[in-house]
Write a structure and sequence with these properties.
With 313 residues, the protein is of the alpha/beta class. 34% of the residues lie in helices and 27% in strands.
């Protein structure tokens, strides 16, 4: 299937010599939720700004639903809605006037019924005649989304959509994103909140220091790279781990009351049976076993640390 967004060989080096973005290749399918995950300063906003025509790339091509974003910037931009990190609204305007104005900027007149629907979906209908300065921080964030959706884009970019908002509002935003996807909108979000990507995304891209480290289906990524941990609750607390257990690389937690073993669940041999036998031989009694899989955060940290080690070698 033809991707709705194709990024080929895109990079960005500023006049100062700072290389903000290394060569990036990326394709996004219509209707998917894609999370671009990385720490602050990793290059997430630079990549989005290039795709949206705000920043000029140093190299590469961008195709948005069949339109060359560099040769046909207006046609490409019509397909895109952007919700920036920073508030960019007239605080003295009303919610309704701001949203309608954003629609007209893209040459789309009228269609008040669509604007009304957007405001209702975003729980802004009751605030439609309020000035933006009168709204809470969470409501102002919703106004940014309403502005981005006003011209009926096929692709919605959310740049750190829940930065600085409380947990309850963050979950409301997640629900909203899923509803938008159900209506056919392709959604690309940048975030440094691991749980945001884990909760919403179909695929995850990991970016660090301007380099796109990988792009993977979320479930496949966690299956391929995720490790499992087994916690062994001891009957008697342990001060140090016996040398006879060195091959399992165990760690002590909970003030010596638990042994933690990290293993690859996909490996042919996990090492669990031999570990439990060795504990028996050493007379180390335990009362409970508990296993859990790695989170996306664990995977992300592993990837970044591994790449840093490779570059330092």
């Amino acid at each position: 299937m033809q991707p709705i967004l194709s990024v080929r060989g895109v990079s960005k080096t500023y006049a100062s010599g700072h290389r903000a973005l290394k060569t990036v290749d990326l394709e996004i399918a219509k209707g998917e939720i894609f999370a671009l995950l990385g720490p602050n300063g990793a290059g997430k906003t630079t990549l989005i700004s290039i795709i949206c025509g705000i920043v000029t790339p140093s190299s590469g091509t961008i195709t948005v639903d069949g339109h060359d974003a560099i040769a046909e910037p207006r046609a490409a931009r019509m397909k895109i809605g952007l919700v920036p990190q920073e508030l960019s609204v007239d605080m003295f305007e009303t919610v309704l006037a701001t949203t309608r104005y954003s629609r007209r900027l893209f040459g789309r007149a009228g269609h008040d019924a669509y604007i009304d629907e957007v405001l209702r979906d975003l729980s802004l209908w009751d605030k439609r005649n309020s000035k933006i300065m009168e709204l809470s921080g969470g409501m102002k964030r919703r106004v940014l989304i309403a502005k981005a959706l006003a011209h009926e884009p096929d692709i919605l970019f959310l740049d750190e959509p829940t930065a600085g908002v409380d947990v309850s509002l963050r979950r409301d935003m997640w629900k909203l994103v899923k509803r938008l996807r159900e209506k056919g909108t392709t959604i690309i979000l940048t975030t440094h909140y691991i749980e945001e990507a884990e909760e919403m995304a179909d695929r995850v891209g990991v970016i660090n220091k301007g380099e796109l480290l990988l792009v993977e289906d979320k479930a496949a990524l966690m299956k391929k790279l995720g490790k499992r941990e087994m916690d062994i609750a001891l009957v008697e607390p342990m001060a140090t781990i016996p040398a006879e257990l060195d091959e399992w690389h165990l760690t002590l937690t909970d003030e010596g009351e638990r042994l933690r073993y990290t293993f690859d669940a996909q490996a042919e041999r996990t090492g669990i049976p031999s570990l439990l036998r060795k504990l028996g031989e050493l007379g180390i009694a335990f009362k409970d076993l508990d296993t859990s899989k790695s989170s996306l955060e664990d995977i992300f940290v592993d990837l970044v640390e591994r790449r840093d080690e490779e570059q330092a070698a």
